[in-house]
Design a protein that fits this description.
By secondary structure, the protein is mostly helical. Among the domains are: 116 residues, no CATH class; 68 residues, no CATH class. Helix 18 packs parallel to helix 20. Belongs to the mTERF family. Keywords: Transcription, Transcription regulation, Transcription termination, Transit peptide. Pfam families: mTERF.
């Protein structure tokens, strides 16, 4: 908790700010129209202020920090002798980045030295550089919120942004979204990241698009890991039996990074002990789809029961098509199976491999198994849609 709960703010001029939602645990600062908006205005105010300037009092009354937090960070601001520069910085955060008072308090608490920054020489030019790259004011504010004010004012910020954007097809919104899960993307050492990505692309045949997917997924921390840490993950990925430098090895990397060895061993035992699979069948499924071992046991159990009792598949068959255990049961497997049964009953389709129906895209399924039969089975589309809607309403 960084803000003071319900204590009155001293009658010093408060900062203007653009209205924005603020967390309920924070008390927003009052808004007045006579806030200092420039260094000259702030300096003029300081000329009439008492000479006994207190950094801690300024952090409490102007930045709305708790006294204990202010006392902790105040030593980092010992060089400040007046409120001139801090007030200018606070006005910039409120006006140029549209940060609400609670978020300004968070930013100052995380990086109090931002109050010593020059707005015209550091902060404003950084905002201009980001805006030229396509960032909106809101997105620039999110950088401060998610990565910290230190990251925003760093000279390495723009080069870091320019490094990641090509992997994300130039999408600024994708980068900002990625920072929510891993703020370290913008502060990691570039040389380390380049070495790590090069290693992943060489051993796992990752494309630039794959790297972009990693960046916005739970695997983003792997991209900023050291090459030694990546080597450890690669060694664990080898245990799935997928050859390196193949497209399938990418899934082995994801599985090895996403789950601990103990979790993977437990999931393998789940297949053997609860589902009755043989060791060979487990290895077959893991080699074809390593990420199967990261799927929840509940989903696997429910899909397995449907595939064996309703569809009539056995372990050998399912192990050969492990994706069946990952698909959405009510939204994909059940509706498509119902269509297949109708077509088989009318002798309109003689195929028996349900995995072929389950694996194709939604567009291809409708084109191959719905539209061609609407003349002979007018209600086929309704049967399928009803099953899908039933799932969505659950």
């Amino acid at each position: 908790m960084l803000l003071l709960p319900g204590r009155p703010v001293l009658p010093s001029p408060a900062l203007p700010y653009s209205p924005s939602p603020s967390p309920s645990r924070f008390r927003p600062l009052p808004c007045t129209s006579n806030a200092p908006t420039s260094a000259s205005t702030a300096a003029s105010a300081d000329a009439n202020a008492p000479s006994s300037f207190s950094v801690e009092d300024n952090l409490v009354n102007r930045c709305n920090l708790y006294p204990n937090v202010a006392a902790r960070v105040a030593p980092e601001l010992s060089a400040i002798r007046s409120s001139s520069k801090p007030d200018t910085v606070l006005a910039f955060l409120a006006d140029a980045l549209e940060l609400s008072p609670p978020l300004i308090a968070v930013a100052v608490a995380r990086d109090p030295t931002i109050l010593t920054c020059s707005v015209p020489r550091t902060l404003a030019p950084r905002a201009d550089e980001l805006r030229a790259l396509g960032f909106t004011t809101y997105q620039m504010g999110l950088i401060v919120v998610r990565c910290g004010a230190a990251a925003f004012r760093s000279r390495a910020l723009v080069p870091s942004v320019q490094f990641w954007l090509p992997y994300l097809r130039g999408r600024v919104d994708k980068l900002v979204a990625a920072l929510k899960g891993n703020p370290g993307l913008l502060t990691a050492d570039h040389q380390t990241v380049k070495s790590t990505i090069a290693l992943l692309q060489e051993e796992g045949t990752l494309t630039d698009g794959d790297v972009g997917w990693f960046a916005i997924s739970y695997c983003s921390k792997l991209l900023v890991a050291s090459p030694d840490e990546v080597d450890t993950v690669l060694a664990r990925a080898d245990e799935f039996g997928v050859p390196r430098k193949t497209r399938a090895f990418k899934d082995a990397i994801i599985a090895a990074f996403s789950a601990t060895p103990e979790r993977l061993a437990w999931k393998a035992a789940f297949f053997r002990d609860e589902l009755g699979w043989t060791e060979a069948q487990v290895k077959t499924a893991a080699a074809k789809m390593p990420t199967l071992l990261t799927v929840s046991a509940e989903r696997i159990r429910r899909n397995w029961e449907f595939l064996t009792t309703e569809v009539g598949m056995d372990a050998e068959r399912v192990a050969s098509f492990p994706a069946l255990l990952r698909y959405d049961l009510e939204g994909r497997l059940v509706p498509r199976f119902q269509v297949m049964r109708v077509l088989q009953a009318r002798r309109l389709w003689r195929g028996r491999d349900f995995n072929n129906i389950a694996a194709i895209t939604e567009e291809d399924f409708v084109a191959k198994f719905i539209r061609p039969f609407l003349v002979k089975v007018p209600n086929l589309a309704k049967i399928y849609e009803a099953a899908v809607i039933e799932k969505e309403e659950q």
